Amino acid sequence: MVSRHIYWQLIFRILLISAAAMGSGFLFFDEQYVLSVLVFGFLVLQTVFLIRYVNQTNRKIAYFFDAIKNEDFTLRFPEKLSVKSLEELNHSLNMLNAMIQDIHLKKQAQEQYYQEILKQADIGILTINPKGHILYANPTVEKLLNYRPLNHIKQLNQVDEKLYGLFENLEPFESKTFQLTNEREKIQLALKSTSINLEKESLLLVVVQDIRRELDEKETDSYVKLIRVLTHEIMNTITPITSISESILKYFKKDGQLLTPDEFAEHHMKSTIKGLEVIKGQGNDLMGFVQSYRTFLSVPEPEKALIAAQNLLEKIKLLMGGDSDWEQIDIEVIVDPGDLELFIDEKQITQVLLNLGKNAQQSLRHQENSAAPDKASSDESEKKGQIKFLAGIDPKGKKIVKVWDNGPGIPQEHLDEIFVPFFTTKNTGTGIGLSLSKQIMRLHGGSIEAASKENTVFTLTFD
Predict the structure, then answer these.
(1) Long-range pairs for 116-122: beta carbons < 8 A, 24 or more residues apart
(2) What sequence ranges are listed for the domain PAS (predicted)?
(3) From residue 263, how far is each of 68, 270, 430, 445 by CA, in Å?
(4) pTM greater than 0.85
(5) Can you tell me the distance from the alpha carbon of 81 to that of 424, in angstroms, rounded to the nearest whole number?
(6) Are 146 and 43 contained in the same domain?
(7) Which of these, 388, 403, 384, lies nearest to 329 by C-alpha position?
(8) CA-CA distance, 146 to 178, in Å (whole number)?
(9) In a domain, 116, yes or no
(10) How far from 457 is each of 15, 22, 232, CA to CA, in Å?
(11) What's the Rg (C-alpha) of the chain?
(12) Which residues lie across from 261 on neighbouring strands?
């Protein structure tokens, strides 16, 4: 409606100017000079009115946009005018101003709402631009880093030089841990970063969390699990020793008195010898158990060197393939990229991979033994065991080695227990293999994880 009125106003004024111009020219050539001058004056007057009309409209629109740009919503245009088109224009501009003001207020309320959530959050949050300026930091992160207000990451140099170096070199999608020590306490911090784009500027969003409680809970849980396993193993060893010792003592006593050699029966002597042999065997088992514990605690620092992943995995395949009992198991090595190298202690990682491979073999053997003969498949490829050693690079750019098998898998309830020292679901073995493997990976600065659904996969990740 507004544009239509302005449109007709412009057409009407242009037509008047055109008519005045033609009339002034006609009268001039008809030698009616007085009338020609009067009509020309009317032409000039209409031209001035047109310019003023257009300028008035443009100024209003310019004022309106300047006010919006400066977030000034107090600008109001009069709506009682003699010119209908300008009155409707002013009314439309006032309505648009009210709508934008309403949207702006809602946006501010929403921003305050989100900021309040961030202020009350238990985790620290901050955003950093490429120049190191901290654009936002909630109170929690200022408390965790023991510095306020945070405006630039260089301020962290006053807290801890290593902390500043960590933030300075932090890349998107990285996860780091850092122990911050101050005059009051030690804080274990976990940092996670991600990249975000805001107004065409790339920012780094960093989440900082105090994980002391989680670490304490995990440590306590690990101790509980370890004590449970130790108690179980020791009790299983000590109980037969105690029972047999009591039985042997009965052979040498009668009514609380020691028997003389003449009273001691020959079959009691034989039973005593057998009992002592059992006690010796149980003692040796207990010594072996303690030795396993000492082995777990005394893993040497790795002597790292660059090792070709292809050569390493081919060596593991050769070591496993030498057992004639495993001819029915396919062992495959896949390395991508082919020239992948690992910075590792070759002996220690060979021990880890060989342990995982043998666990997979035993799982496949158990599957074969437990399969019913009448349910055997006629397709040899379907029932044949498979083990795959895969090396490559994960989406985060870290080098990984996976050990995959198509065995029956690990029960879900045992997945959280398998890395606990001396925990085992097998009838043989000490249960030290996986926990020792985890210790070796920790010394390498990496990790080992297990997943078992349709198939079992152990993943070794190297930093």
Answers:
(1) 122/209
(2) 110-149
(3) 115, 15, 43, 67
(4) no
(5) 92
(6) no
(7) 384
(8) 14
(9) no
(10) 86, 94, 28
(11) 43
(12) none
Name the residue among 51, 54, 50, 96 with its Cα closest to residue 77.
96
Examine residue 187 and state whether it is found in any structural domain, yes or no. Answer: yes
Structure-block tokens of residue 81: 């005018």
SS (H, E, C) 261-308: CCCCCHHHHHHHHHHHHHHHHHHHHHHHHHHHHHHHHCCCCCCCEEEE
What mean pLDDT comes out for the span 305-321? 89
Take residue 389 and report the two structure tokens written for it.
Answer: 């050693």
Pick from 272, 297, 322: which residue ends a domain?
A: 297
Contact 206, 126 (CB under 8 A): yes
Q: Which secondary-structure segment (H or E) carries 460?
A: strand 456-462
Whether 36 is in a domain gets the answer: yes
CA 135 to chain centre: 23
> Which of 271, 275, 294 has its CA nearest to residue 283?
275
User: Strand pairing partners for 403?
Assistant: 389, 458
Q: Which element (helix H / strand E) includes 448?
A: strand 447-452
Q: Are residues 246 and 390 in the same domain?
A: no
Q: Does an H or E element contain 404, and which?
A: strand 399-405
Residue pLDDT, tens place only, 432-450: 778 888 888 988 888 989 8
What is the mean pLDDT of the segment spanning 453-457? 83
Q: What three-state secondary structure class fits 155?
A: helix
Higher pLDDT among residues 346 and 14, named by residue = 346
Which among 7, 43, 11 is positioned nearest to 24, based on CA atoms?
Answer: 43
Count Cα neighbours of 343 within 13 Å in the Cβ-side half-sphere. 7
In the chain, the amino acid numbered 190 is: A
* Chain-centroid distance, C-alpha 319: 36
- Tens of pLDDT, residue by residue over 325-355, are 555 788 899 999 999 999 999 989 998 998 8
Whether 451 contacts 459, CB under 8 Å: yes
Split into its structural domains, the chain has a count of: 4
Q: What is the domain range of residue 22? A: 2-111
Domain contains 375: no
- Across residues 406-422, what is the average pLDDT? 75
Number of neighbouring beta carbons within 10 Å of residue 232: 12
* Residue 310 sits in the same domain as residue 340: yes
